[in-house]
Amino acid sequence: MQVIHILALLFFAAFIALFYKFLTADGDFTLLSKGTVKREEIQDKVIWITGASRGIGEILAKQLATLGAKLIISARNEAELERVKKQLVGKHAPDKVMILPLDLTSGEDKLREAVQKAESFFDGAGVDYMIHNAAFERPKTTALDVPEHSLKATFDVNILGPISLTRILAPYMLKRGRGHFVVMSSAAGKTPAPGQAVYSASKFAVNGYFHTLRSELNRKGIKVTVVCPGPIKTPSTPEVSTSSEKGSAERRVSSERCAELTIIAASHGLKEAWISYQPVLAVMYLVQYMPTIGFWLMDKIGAKRVEAAAKQGNTYSLSLLFGKKKDQ
């Protein structure tokens, strides 16, 4: 009987430790279990990053340069790319960093020219990693209030651009028998995202395409890592805390940590990685493994989240679930 009590206590202690780790986690358990970057998978590899002129893309470029990658950085703003290049430090940076201006909405002919240039860089070594980081997101609004121009812009940048670029680049990778697509998706591509219907739809579409691409080409040497960040703190992220929500500012993973975890996921060849603090991480687990409960939860907070966004309040607060209902 004493042995049973000891085992029960050990089990309870392990459960508490695991629960605490879950509450304080900033990524899924598989991702966090990998620990650090496999530097040998990054050093001297040719890595092409879109959306590299700011935000997570800029931070990815800085961290990858430090790890010894050969970088190709792309965005629409060439002047901003020059600024980023000057700040890079590493084995091949800044002098050997290649700037390749790119507009994902420019059509397949322009994208094909960009791919040919990227493949010719570094003495024709070819692209080892393609990091699809460019994205278009508008301020939160209801699913019925999205104007047509915003709908088209979101789909052009978030879906059609990355897919077209992949269709053109993949054959080069297939000839070499190796290549890795790293796709910066979103938690909004895993769960309903009230106030972000079109953005969410674009990320669900991206997830579907790239997971399917991997299943088709995996045995031919093509890897795909889909990264799904929740709220991320970038230099352009406004501080969100209203007088009625003192102390409830949105808790966001730093862009530096997001970039670090993304590189860890890619270097370990993970198929998918989630990056977020609670409560978003918990919602992702619920929708993935207990969808009935997860969808009920999102239905409960949906209208409140849209209202909070309109007031520039905390759209990730637990108060959306437990707060009092307003009088009708």
From TrEMBL:
PROSITE patterns associated with the record: ADH_SHORT
Pfam families: adh_short
InterPro entries: NAD(P)-bd_dom_sf, Sc_DH/Rdtase_CS, SDR_fam
Protein name from the UniProt record: Dehydrogenase/reductase SDR family member 7
